[in-house]
Amino acid sequence: MTQKKKAVVLLSGGLDSGTVLSIVSNSDYECYCLSFRYGQRHSIELEKAAQIAKYCGAKQHRIIEIDIAQLGGSSLTDRSMEVPKSRGNLDEVNEIPNTYVPVRNLIFLSYAVAWAEVLDCKDIFIGVNCYDYSGYPDCRPEFIESFQRCANLASANAVTGKGEIAIHAPIIKMTKAEIIKKGSELGFDYALTHSCYDPINAKPCGKCDSCQLRLKGFREAGLIDPVEYAD
Length: 231
Description:
Blueprint: E1 5-10, H1 15-25, E2 29-37, H2 44-55, E3 60-65, H3 104-119, E4 123-125, H4 141-154, H5 156-159, E5 166-168, H6 176-185, H7 209-221
């Protein structure tokens, strides 16, 4: 039997990263999932990440403890800041909201590269998206391409000729509806995911940017979101 290639998959517990794990686990990869407790407002997403990793048959799932909250600057890590709600047509909103956690994906991908090198793994997958999203700069193709170059300059395996790391972002140019349709085709269970920035009694609020984009995606996909909302 042919041995599967290893893949490190960044897994937040949300819709996008869950879909990516479903895509990768249905391909020729053995999945090593990486999540982070970084000082975010709630731990629900990490509970969901563990469930998703198990559901998709991941080989390992690790939760790394870091404290980005000490740096502040985001309503996802600073409870004195309010999470924006009901912002209307997000396609017409240009400013980056305060839910942006400064260079979060840069930090997460750095950990992923380090683990990949330990695992002798050449492939890293991340669920960033540049269409139906809140305008975060570290979700753009330009960032992913630039980070890959930087990672291979920093990696011992790459500079000694043992193989370069590839950063894969398979849903980066898909709409939320296309992402949901893809996951549904693969049989992924979206009831396992949590997307809300500011849940109420562990239920998604339905009003933050992430909830609005998720609900819009399900509507446009012609499907019903299986999670129960607070409002």
